[in-house]
Amino acid sequence: MKAHATAIVDPRARIAPDVEIGPYAVVGADVEIGAGCSIGAHAVVTGHTRIGRRNRIFQFASIGEIPQDKKYRGEPTWLEIGDDNTIREFCTFNCGTPQAAGVTRVGDDNWFMAYVHLAHDCQVGSHTIFANGATLGGHVHVGDFAILGGFTAVHQFSRIGTHSITGGGSMVRQDVPPYVTVSGNPAKPYGLNVEGLKRRGFTPDTITRLNRAYKTLYRSGLTLEQAKQRLVRQAAECPEIRVTLDFLSTSGRGIVR
Known about the structure:
Layout: E1 2-3, E2 8-9, E3 14-15, E4 20-21, E5 26-27, E6 31-33, E7 38-39, E8 44-45, E9 48-51, E10 56-57, E11 62-65, E12 78-81, E13 86-87, E14 92-94, E15 103-106, E16 111-112, E17 117-118, E18 123-124, E19 129-130, E20 135-136, E21 141-142, E22 147-148, E23 153-154, E24 159-160, E25 165-166, E26 171-172, E27 180-183, E28 188-192, H1 194-199, H2 204-218, H3 224-235, H4 239-249
């Protein structure tokens, strides 16, 4: 461990030998930090927090603090962060609560810009981008490759589907299906995330079929149940549509529509 002389590191913390810890940073007793990580100046890593390999945590971040939940009574809960994540200045990631799984989870290769907040029990996939000030309420699930625009706020228990994107300042009160662009207060659908799909290697034919599925869901005038029945037939020719169907089948708050 390469810790600055002013850093406060509990001797019980499990830290890989090559981890760099900056001036005035604080690392608690129940923290585990994997190889290749760096912890910036004045950052605080506390709680039952496990951080994987090659993560960069910038100055003034608060990682693993207790949940902002009035029901919390000091029970042991956890924060788990995967590999290759970038966590910029003033981000706040909280541990879980015993009322849920007890764990807040972050996958791999995510990019969290300044002032991002992950509340208790959130589940974030991999390869996501959270722009400055994006905020998740408790129990939010975010799928792989999703992008949250700056100052997006997501209501607790909502879900953000894979490959979806939100416009800056969006207020998301319901689930956002995979591949969809939403924006506004409250957030409304504005088409398929075409540019994102192109960048991630989706073929023109697949994008055309996904766009047809979007129109079935949002522009056909069908009820949600009727649209789902039509999507079943479309999924037979495009497996990617099955991702949307699976998402719709497990929606708890209803979808942005």
